[in-house]
Structures are given as structure tokens and as C-alpha cells.
Amino acid sequence: MKKTDEILQKMMSKDSIKVTSPLLPDLNEFTELLKDIWDRKWIANNGQYHQQLEQALAEYLKVPFVSLFTNGTLPLITALQALDIKGEVITTPYSFVATSHALWWNGLKPVFVDIDPTNCNIDPSKIEAAITPKTTAIMPVHVYGTPCDIKAIQDIADRYNLKVIYDAAHAFGVEKDGESILKAGDISTLSFHATKVFTTIEGGAMFMHDAETKQHIDHLKNFGFAGETEVVAPGINSKLDEVRAAFGLLNLQKVDAAIEARHRVAIRYREALRDVEGITFWDDQSGVRHNYGYFPIFVNAQEYGMTRDELYFRMQESDIYGRRYFYPLISTFAPYRSLESASPQNLPVATKMANEVICLPMHHALSEEDVEKVIKLVKTNK
Ligand SMILES: *Cc1c(COP(=O)(O)O)cnc(C)c1O
Predict the structure, then answer these.
(1) What is the pLDDT of residues 335-364, one digit of tens each?
(2) How much is the pTM?
(3) Ligand 1: which of 182, 191, 240, 359 to mutate, most ligand atoms within 8 Å of CB?
């Protein structure tokens, strides 16, 4: 067996401490909904549970319009298509690779801009220098669910007549000053993947500002069909099925408790790790409802006495599986590394943060004992 396969096997064992754990509905309640789906024999194509989940999410997230998708990547791809984005798009290298892949699938050129070290989001003060006559949009990411500087980004977009599409994959339920950050920009998207705070196993959603755009998006995610006999655009198939919509409806009832449980883990990590030399992390921002989807720490090797990777692999030896999100940077991957904006000299902050980060285990099902085990390991830096 290859070493990575061995680690994967160990990580999959039930007792390992994982970076995340999926939110699961009560099995009996889920079975009841499955029986109903079996009775009605309508299992896809905008069924009853699909409609209910769209409405329930609009209410929970306090947004006017929701369009459900089968994952979190296709709404990104579809948003760019719907807004007819061309040429160059300014984006961040510090994200999951799907952010840039969505540009690639639309034939667009990503232009990477460095990040702000205080939140790992795109640094608005560096965006203007990257704008060219070919720039048509900005695609920022609310990394770890921490809101981007939405106002600064919108100011630039307005001045240069650019669209803004937020990859808000991490930002389920995040609010700033009582308002959902999913309302920012022209379009925002979420992922409901198993690893995210709210999950439909695989799934995702798009958020827009008007009914007309929602209708167009709903056509695009259904092959472009605008009626039984009319196709208005080369759409894709990205519909969420009834089984996963029902799963999501039940999870929606549990997600607040899950976020509270995550919050308690964050409080304990902060309290215990505050004084560990060479380890930094962020506190909550005032006015923000965080979702505690991730708990990134940054390891300064010199002060900590051990490199990030030494700590990461030592955790693995103790059956604790953090993740180096987001290392390596998207800009270092084969499809993107030859772009001029991908050079490490253009991205010094992102390069440094990617080399220092570990996301500690963070989920609703972590036991106090597990949390203490993680803390003890991080504190043992000698
Ligand atoms: C998870 C994620 C995606 C992709 O979502 P899928 O549901 O896995 O397709 C996109 N962007 C970011 C930042 C993500 O973390």
C-alpha cells in the first residue's frame, strides 16, 4: 500500500479525530421522508422537497431567492455563464481549487491577487492594480466563512463596471450586522458538501437579487429548458434530487445546534492556545455571526520550534487529522502556474499563509476529550 493510502485507511477509522464530521439527520426521521418519496414516486425535477428546501433556506438565510444545485461547483460555473462574463476575472489563489476551475470551464482567465493576512480573503487594496481592459468581474471567496471586505470590493466593482460573484461556499448562515453576507455582489454561491457546516451530502445553492435572474438560473441548471419544448441556452444538468433535498430539510433543523457546538470548540481552542508561542489564530469579529466551519491556526516555525508540516504529521501519528487548507495555493497547480499573476512574487502573503496553516479538527460531534487531545498535542512543541 502507498503511504497516502495507509494514512487514508487510518483516517477513516471510526476513532480517529477528523477535521470535520458530516451533519446527519435522525435516521428514523429520514426514513419517514424516504417512505413518502417512495409513495409519491417523484424523485427528481423540482419535486416537493426541493421546493420546500428552497423556501426553508430562503427563510433561514434571510435571502429573497435561492436556487438549489447538485453541488457547490456548478453554481459557480453557471453564475459566470448567466452573467455572460468574458475575458479576465480577478480572484484569490487561497481557496479550494473549484474557484479557479469555474473560471476555466467558462474559458476565462483567472488573475490572482494577494490576500489580506488578517483573514486570508482577497486584499481589496491590491485589486485595482490587477484590472486591465479585459477585466469583467471579481470572484472573491469568504475563506473559512470570514466575510470579505464587501464594501471595498463593491466600490471597486462599481467604479470599473465589474460584476462580483462570491464563492461563499464556507459562509452558510454567516451574517454581518444582522444581514446575510450571501446578499453581497451580483451572485453568491454555497456548497452543501458533506464537509461543510450544512450538508445535503453533495449539494449547493445560488443566491441572486431578482426573480428574473432566478428563473434564468433555474433554466440553466436544467439543460436550458424554459418549457416543455423550448431551450433558451446551452444549460447544464445540476438539479438537486428529492432524497438529498429531504436530507437537507432535516439537517436545517439541526444546524443551529451544530453551529453552537462548533462555537464551544472554538472558545476552548482559543482559551487553551492563546499563549502558545508561534501559534496564531483569529478571534470573532464584532457584528458578525460566524459559523465556525473551520479553525485555522498559523505556525511560525521559528517561534514554535517546529515547522507546520512537522506539527501536521505529528498530529497524524496521534490519529488527529487536521487539514492544510489552503495549501498548496491554486496558483501553484498545473493548469494555472504558468499565468503571470501566479508567480509567488505576486502572492507573498498567500504563499506565507499557505505554508503556515493547519485547520484543526472542528465539528459539532467532537467530544471534550478529543478537543483536549488536540490541544495537548499542539501545546507539546518541544
Ligand atoms: C467546497 C468548496 C467548493 C466546491 O463545492 P462542492 O460542493 O464540493 O462542489 C467551492 N469553493 C470552495 C471555497 C469550497 O470550499
Answers:
(1) 999 999 999 999 999 999 999 999 999 999
(2) 0.97
(3) 191
